[in-house]
Amino acid sequence: MNFKIDSSELQRKLSDIQSIIEKKATTPVLSNFLLNVENDGSTIYATDLDMAIKEPVTTASVEKPGKFCLPAKKLYEIAREITGEIAFEETENNWVSIKAGKSYFRIAALESEEYPQWPEIEQDKQIVINAHKLLGMIEKTLYSAGEADPRYTLNGVLFHIFGEQKKMLLVGTDSHRLAVIETPIDVPFTDELKLIVPRKSVTELKKFLTGIDGEISFDLSQNHIRFNLFEKEFLTKLIEGSYPTYDQVIPKNNDKTATINREEFITVLKRVSVINRDKSKIIKIDINENEMEIFATDPELGEARDSMEVNFDGEAINVGFNSRYLLELLLSMEAENVVVKFLDSQNPTLFMEEGTENYRCVIMPVRI
Question: Which of 294, 344, 343, 290 is nearest to 313 (CA)?
Fold first, then answer.
């Protein structure tokens, strides 16, 4: 194998796979990537067995085709320090020499046959969606998904597809909070599907979608979902199991309604939360008539209090929340005002952007 490649392209492609390759893999080959160099097209491929990415290399000048498997992190570090063209040449006993100008490296490669093959999936169904729309849906739900939760189905984002109604919902929950966003979509089938995509995979997908304009597609099978992102293909396993019945958590009868300026709410929350060093960052909210007061206390530091005007319809209420949950929710929204619907201090509270109900968020209050 003998070829040359532009260092800037190699750096970009290796940057894409850094979060996918296993840096402390018990199986050494998973800390590597596979480069397939062919006269009619070359590709980079990386996997951690749960997700995989494949994308073309467009600047490769091939003298002798072949495959080789090299450490992804180390080669990325080399590519960042080099400008211009890099020449690769396979030598004896699976060693690869790398030359760029006066720089020279010699790195041990693994047998390409050891690298896991690209998972082939049976394309049962395909959906086309605007990349920017999907990115927005992910940004509004990913923060609510669980992390390392023993209830493993919570450690992902639910893609709930209603074929007959031609709509798709994305849902994230860690059982303390919930985010649901709905959008109409052209679904070419009538089935109802519930696909739980792992949080790590959705985080990678979010990164790949950033900056993409236009329509992308994703292919669905029983155990996998594959996103076709123009030149990139990103594939991930699905989480098996039953997702919680999220629609039953969304309050239907909350009768105390506050309309609050979102930016001012964020500012006041940040200001008051400074005093609170507790990991849960509990704050207390009192709403009486058209004024909202926010309190935070710390047994060693002291207390903080601030207030702002709101439009409120209902009896006075006192309720406690995790301020981090509140801030992440508010930062995920875009509307000028947020509508908050309370029942009491013990039951779930519903948050929506003013003027629309397609994005609904729920937070469980905490005892104060």
Answer: 290
